[in-house]
């Protein structure tokens, strides 16, 4: 095989239905991580050829307005990259107040991602704005509801993921859930695309996701640990020093942060000293949280991540540096291309 033809085949292996539909260079989307996926990170991902989703998270209008506007400003002279900009929200928080979503839809995002709740009440307004609807699920049984809502893309989030996801009782592994949902979509909704989330931090994960039947990947933890992320530098540094055994999924940090998440969702982060001290008696923590919350709050204020949390998933063991988002995406794509070509 001559070198020119080899390069052409490698390049073509990364073109998927997802990259085509969203005019991407790479079949990669930034996870809209609350308070971490700000405007600078979303813009950097869009410029690098991925889908850049601002983390609208808990639906705070002021935060969403500021960060989405920043992303728009950073992309104002780059129409192709701006067309890869969207936003994501926690659905059950929208049920309380949807004003941030309403505002974002006036900005004509290319996509809206909804997670952790019923997306159907928002489907019409998203469609009328011209945005594509992306729905994240943690179980096969949630897929039919997402299809009913008109999802263009379904994200299969495994329990390996950092931040919020299904608890140990209800959660699934990315490696088994992705091909099962791929088969379900092929039989019931073949035009709906599929992304894998949870446990993807390098080109091996991207290549594996494509081989399992996904059309691309949603990346959280690896892009959380980049220069553009709004995560605290101390948290990023702690992540580079933690291996894959060092995270835990529980309710502990939600209780400490006064976040009243509904079942069946809980939170994965680095299993630091404060978490270890509290994880053995979550019921007691719920009943008497004040002392632990004071310690947590002091840790946040001091930048002490033996008490404050660092939101990463099981892929933390693959995070050894804090580069730019563009570098992460380039490395991931190059490695995946080589693996798929071989």
List keywords for this structure.
2 domains, 8-stranded parallel sheet, TIM Barrel, 342 residues, 18 helices, disordered N terminus, alpha/beta
Task: Give an overview of the whole structure.
Helix 1 (3-12) packs across helix 18 (325-341), helix 3 runs parallel beside helix 4 (61-74) and helix 11 (203-211) packs across helix 18. The chain has helices at residues 3-12, 17-21, 39-47, 61-74, 79-82, 91-94, 99-106, 120-129, 143-148, 174-188, 203-211, 221-224, 233-240, 252-256, 273-278, 282-287, 290-302, 325-341, and strands at 28-30, 52-57, 85-90, 111-115, 132-137, 153-157, 163-166, 193-197, 216-219, 247-250, 265-270. It has 18 helices and eleven strands. The chain has two domains: 3-231 and 319-341, Aldolase class I (TIM Barrel); 233-310, no CATH class. The protein is α/β, with parallel strands linked by helices and 342 residues long. The radius of gyration is 19 Å and the shape is globular.
Strand-helix topology:
Blueprint (H helix, E strand, L loop, with lengths): L2 H10 L4 H5 L6 E3 L8 H9 L4 E6 L3 H14 L4 H4 L2 E6 H4 L4 H8 L4 E5 L4 H10 L2 E6 L5 H6 L4 E5 L5 E4 L7 H15 L4 E5 L5 H9 L4 E4 L1 H4 L8 H8 L6 E4 L1 H5 L8 E6 L2 H6 L3 H6 L2 H13 L22 H17 L1
Helix pairs in contact: 1-18, 3-4, 4-7, 11-18
Gyration radius, in Å: 19 Å
How far apart are the termini?
12 Å
- CATH H-level superfamily of the largest domain: Aldolase class I
Order of helices and strands: HHEHEHHEHHEHEHEEHEHEHHEHEHHHH
CATH architecture call of the largest domain: Alpha-Beta Barrel
The structural domain count equals 2
Percent of residues in β-strands: 15-25%
The CATH class of the largest domain is identified as: Alpha Beta
As laid out across the biggest beta sheet, the strand order is: 1-9-8-6-5-4-3-2
The low-pLDDT segments are 1-13
Indicate the CATH topology of the largest domain.
TIM Barrel
DSSP helix fraction? 40-55%
Structural shape: globular
Number of helices: 18
């Amino acid at each position: 095989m001559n070198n020119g033809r080899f390069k052409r085949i490698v390049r073509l292996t990364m073109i998927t239905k997802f990259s085509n539909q969203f005019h991407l260079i790479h079949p990669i989307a930034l996870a809209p991580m609350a308070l971490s996926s700000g405007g600078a990170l979303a813009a950097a991902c869009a410029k690098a050829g991925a889908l850049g989703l601002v983390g609208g998270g808990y639906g705070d209008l002021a935060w969403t307005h500021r960060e989405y506007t920043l992303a728009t400003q950073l992309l104002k002279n780059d129409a192709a990259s701006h067309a890869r900009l969207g936003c994501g929200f926690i659905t059950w928080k929208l049920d309380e107040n949807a004003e941030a979503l309403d505002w974002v839809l006036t900005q004509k995002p290319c996509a809206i991602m909804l997670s952790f709740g019923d997306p159907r009440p928002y489907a019409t307004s998203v469609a009328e704005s011209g945005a594509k609807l992306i729905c994240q699920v943690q179980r096969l049984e949630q897929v039919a509801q997402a299809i009913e809502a008109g999802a263009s893309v379904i994200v299969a989030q495994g329990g390996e993921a950092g931040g919020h996801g299904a608890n140990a009782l209800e959660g699934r592994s990315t490696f088994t859930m992705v091909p099962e949902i791929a088969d379900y979509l092929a039989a019931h909704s073949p035009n709906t695309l599929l992304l894998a989330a949870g446990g993807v931090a390098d080109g091996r994960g991207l290549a594996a996701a494509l081989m399992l039947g996904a059309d691309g990947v949603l990346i959280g933890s690896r892009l959380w640990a980049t220069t553009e992320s709004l995560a605290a530098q101390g948290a990023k540094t702690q992540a580079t020093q933690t291996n894959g055994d060092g995270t835990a999924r529980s309710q502990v940090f939600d209780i400490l942060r006064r976040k009243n998440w509904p079942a069946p969702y809980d939170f994965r982060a680095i299993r630091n000293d404060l978490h270890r001290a509290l994880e053995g008696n979550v019921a007691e923590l719920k009943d008497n949280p004040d002392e632990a919350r004071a310690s947590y709050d002091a840790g946040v204020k001091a930048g002490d991540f033996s008490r404050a949390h660092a939101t990463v998933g099981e892929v933390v063991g693959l995070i050894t540096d804090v580069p730019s988002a563009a570098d992460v995406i380039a490395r991931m794509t190059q490695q995946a291309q080589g693996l798929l070509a071989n």
